[in-house]
Amino acid sequence: MPARERHIITPEYPPQPGGVSDYTAQVAEGLAQAGEEVHVWCPPTTAEGAVPIGPVKIHRDLGHVSRQDLRVIGEQLDRYPAPRRILLQYVPHGYGRRSMNVPFCTWLWRRAKSDGDILEIMVHEAFLNFEGSWRQYGAALVHRLMTIILLRAATRVWFSNGESERRWKSYTLGRKVPFQLLPVPSNIRPARDETAIQALGRYAPEGVLLLGHFGTYGLPVVSVLEPILSKIAREMPGQPLLLMGTGSQEFRKHLIERYPAWEKNLHATGSLAPDELSRHIAACDLLIQPYPDGATTRRTSLMVGLSHGKPILTTRSHVTEPLWEQGAAVCLTPAGDAEAFVKLLGELLGNSNERARMSLAAQKLYRERFDISHTVAALRLPATEPMACAS
After folding, report:
1. Could you tell me the pTM of the whole model?
2. Could you tell me which of 145, 148, 149 has the C-alpha nearest to residue 109?
3. Please, which pLDDT band fits residue 47 given cuts at 50, 70 and 90?
4. Alpha helix locations (H) across 170-269?
5. Contacts of 248 (CB under 8 A, 6+ apart)
6. Whole-angstrom Cα distance, residue 79 to residue 212?
């Protein structure tokens, strides 16, 4: 029996860096290992790094997602048996035209309507808010138009978090489209090299707990992270802290300029290869992962900590899903409340039993809800009828 074909359209794919890139690679490889013939359609890249090898067939022909590029891609897709099952990795800013590529959306709609292709959409980001400059207002309006067009074409829509689902639902305009939550898994597999992990004890004196933070140090997260670290620097000056991820060394330099006394205990790795990053995360006793919009199922950095069984102190907001409170796998404080965060941090540092409980709960929650096997199983569900046959 021939393998089922799957076509994945994505704005980035390894060696291109990025969360969507890492996620798509995991999904493509998982589907291929499950027996599907997987084709990934993505832009060309000059990025350095490991080029994916294996059963996934990669077509770097998406270009700038111009009309000409779409015509070429369409001709290539038409060589495969109809109906083509297409999985779109959707972020508005990922497909050119300054995030306002309406022709791309109408191209997908025409393929669903005229060619009978089956379009499923994984929404990583919904659309811009109506705020800021008039240019953003205009882009936000176009994003909603793109959403409407895509929802007229889609047979199923997946979401990485509940907030994006709520935002998209109001644009179905009465059309019945199945919506389903599909949380993102960790993109870093836990390393098992205990010797290498123990060697990282240089970051903290013997008997002293090591705090860690993993991220990319963008402005939104830094806006809530820096006030917390400032309180730690003032109230726990001897506390070792390891900053991990792209931008961590620059952020450390910034903090040392403000708190010179923290220089010996504040460490940063910069960007690391996946195995090396895993070892550094494993060496931490507690992760602090505050987010301005709170913990959600789309936070890859949160998933990395869970998959490693780390006790995690994070934040909540109105978009934080109930499972974070119900599972008790993480500790939560209100987003933006640095005082409450650091107070709870002190309590956790002094409670080894609670940290051990959280570690087990984190592994259990990740295994039962977020492992890539759940993603692959959900995506392999039978597709609903293509748009041409839908009511």
Report:
1. 0.86
2. 149
3. confident
4. 194-199, 219-235, 248-258
5. 215, 217, 268, 269, 270
6. 50
- Identify the residue whose tokens are 């820096």: 226
Residues in the chain: 391
Give the residue, 38 or 82, on which the prediction is more confident. 38
Contact 324, 289 (CB under 8 A): no
User: Residue 18 is which amino acid?
Assistant: G
Say what angle helices 338-349 and 219-235 make with each other, to 10 degrees.
60
**What type of residue sits at position 89?**
Q
Instruction: Look up residue 273 and give its two tokens.
Output: 């290869």
- Residue 122: its pLDDT value, please? 96
| CB 157 within 8 Å of CB 151 | yes
Instruction: Express each pLDDT in 350-382 by its tens digit.
Output: 999 999 999 999 999 999 999 999 999 999 988
Query: What is the DSSP annotation of 259-270?
Result: -GGGTTTEEE--
195 band by pLDDT with thresholds 50, 70 and 90: low
Question: At residue 126, what are phi and psi to the nearest 5 degrees?
Answer: -80, -80
- Residue 123: strand pairing partners: 90, 159
In 3-state terms, the chain is what percent helix, strand and coil (to 5)? 45, 15, 40
- Is the Cβ–Cβ distance between 387 and 112 less than 8 Å? yes
Residues 208 and 180: beta-carbon distance below 8 Å: no
The answer to whether residues 298 and 208 touch, using CB atoms and an 8 Å cutoff, is: no
Where b means 16+ CB within 10 Å and e means fewer, 52-72 reads eeeebebbeebeebeeebbee
Record the tokens describing residue 278, joined without a space: 């895993």
Query: pLDDT tens-digit profile of 271-281?
Result: 998 889 999 99
Question: CA torsion angle for 39, 42, 48, 54 (degrees, to 10)?
Answer: 0
341 closest CA partner among 293, 288, 265: 288
Hey, what are 238's tokens?
Answer: 């001897």
Residues linked to residue 243 through DSSP beta bridges, in sequence order: 213, 268
DSSP state of 387: G
Output the six-digit token pair for 95. Answer: 């497909």
Strand partners for 241? 211, 266
Mean pLDDT of the residues in the chain:
91
Write down the H helix ranges in 284-388.
300-307, 322-327, 338-349, 352-365, 372-379
**Alpha carbon distance 13, 45 (integer Å):** 9
